[in-house]
Amino acid sequence: MSIFSIILTGVGLAMDAFAVSLAKGMCFSKKDATKYALVFALVFGFFQAAMPFIGYFCSAELATYIQDFDHWVAFILLLVIGLKMVKEAFEEKDVDCDISLTMKDIIVLGIATSIDALAVGVSFAFLNVNILSACITIGAVTFVLSFLAVHMGKRIGSAFQKYAELFGGSILIILGVKILIEHLFM
């Protein structure tokens, strides 16, 4: 998997964290936005980096047994995650402006927005991806996008949240199809 594909995977995975950061950013005062942007970016970036690592090592042994159809596993995982994100983009959501967030609340959000990355880590094991560089890249992409999203939320409101999820889901679906085509026809 190329670095470009890993960056795109990072962008796709970061869209849940981006959407949450954007929505919460709408609720913060200008003074609090920078503080929360940094906290969200650190927590979301950490969990987005850690989950693929966990998924990779939980499935590394399994990969040797299913390498003949691993591309199908990667395709199905990315397709399911991507379709879920696209579906969620079209669901009506209320913005929860409860800004009395504790660190525990932010950690729970970090875990919740990174569960998809666990499944991507499983697919990385099948694709023989350099897991350390992939996790660092995904974490860095999520850090940057989450930080920016809090500030964007403060400025533009909720109009962009739907498109972030749609964009992220579409990227993951396209990557899944690309992996399948590469393994079937190349």
From TrEMBL:
Major localization class: membrane
Source species, domain of life: Bacteria
Compartments reported by the entry: Cell membrane
Membrane topology summary: Multi-pass membrane protein
Keywords: Cell membrane, Ion transport, Manganese, Membrane, Transmembrane, Transmembrane helix, Transport
Segments crossing the lipid bilayer: 6-24, 36-57, 69-86, 106-125, 131-151, 163-181
Keyword Cell inner membrane belongs to the record: no
Role according to the record: Probably functions as a manganese efflux pump.
Family statement: Belongs to the MntP (TC 9.B.29) family.
The name this protein goes by in its record: Putative manganese efflux pump MntP
Species name: Breznakia pachnodae
Record gene name: mntP
